[in-house]
Design goal:
Blueprint (H helix, E strand, L loop, with lengths): L14 E5 L3 E6 L18 H9 L4 E2 L8 E7 L2 H12 L4 E9 L6 E5 L2 E2 L11 E2 L2 E12 L10 E10 L6 H8 L13 H11 L6 E9 L6 E5 L11
Parallel strand pairs: 4-11
Antiparallel strand pairs: 1-2, 2-4, 3-4, 5-10, 5-11, 6-9, 7-8, 9-10, 11-12
Length: 240
């Protein structure tokens, strides 16, 4: 019998994609917070604290990924480097590519969603200024699953998209794909609940189907161009 006073088991190590004296880049699992937040006050586990303990030194997040999003996440190993990289992101001197599994089949094979977004998606959009936002996308694959999520149809159509946001507005890809009538599977805030539940049961995986696959940036010290990639996890295999 396990003692109630036994220490909790150690948390799994994060997968390091890149590490030097200035940067640490991880492949963040879906479901892991980037840092502790008042919005999830009950949750103690977060990538920042895990990586800090794993490396034995302070780390600073350079950007954010939603809790449900997996993939490339960059930390700086000093406040100065974090500031420099944050500026590079703000000035769009980086590029990002995501994979998204969405509802329905896009009519075209590629396109650009140009739709301004309210600054805070948690507040009524009519009371906020709307900010410029564009997301380029291309359709990698169209699929049909033998799952009834709408009684009018005997199956469900899905598409695998590659998405490249020009800006980094909060939930930008999620909000843009909802606007395009192709919400991301597993998106509790911007998607369809019955569809998400039916597909989670069919696939045996409950997650937000959004993965930060690639981030390209210029190293703030060496000046080298870094292309940082996180391969999609095994749950993506049926769609690739």
């Amino acid at each position: 019998m396990t003692s109630p006073f036994a220490p909790p088991p150690p948390l799994p190590l994060l997968s390091l994609l890149y590490l030097d004296d200035h940067l640490a880049v991880i492949d963040k699992p879906s479901g892991l917070l980037v840092h502790r937040s008042a919005l999830d006050a009950h949750e103690d586990d977060a990538a920042l604290q895990r990586l800090r303990d794993q490396l034995g030194r302070p780390v600073w997040p350079v950007h954010r990924l939603d809790r449900g999003t997996s993939g490339v996440l960059v930390f700086a190993l000093s406040a100065q480097i974090a500031s420099e990289l944050g500026q590079a992101l703000a000035e769009r001197r980086t590029s990002k590519r995501y994979l998204a599994l969405v509802r329905g089949w896009p009519v075209a094979d590629e396109g650009l969603i140009d739709h301004p977004l309210a600054r805070d998606p948690e507040l009524p959009s009519a009371q906020q200024p709307h900010l410029e936002a564009q997301t380029g996308w291309s359709c990698l694959r169209r699929l049909t699953l033998p799952v009834v999520t709408d009684l009018r149809f005997p199956s469900t159509r899905l598409a695998l998209l590659a998405c490249e946001p020009v800006q980094g507005r909060r939930h930008q890809i999620r909000r843009h794909l909802k606007h395009a009538a192709h919400p991301i599977i597993g998106d509790a805030n911007h998607g369809k609940g019955p569809l998400n539940r039916a597909l989670a049961a069919h696939l045996g995986v409950q997650r937000l189907w959004l993965h930060a696959q690639r981030l390209t940036l210029t190293h703030p010290v060496s000046g080298a161009v870094l292309t940082l990639e996180a391969p999609p996890g095994p749950e993506w295999a049926p769609f690739l």
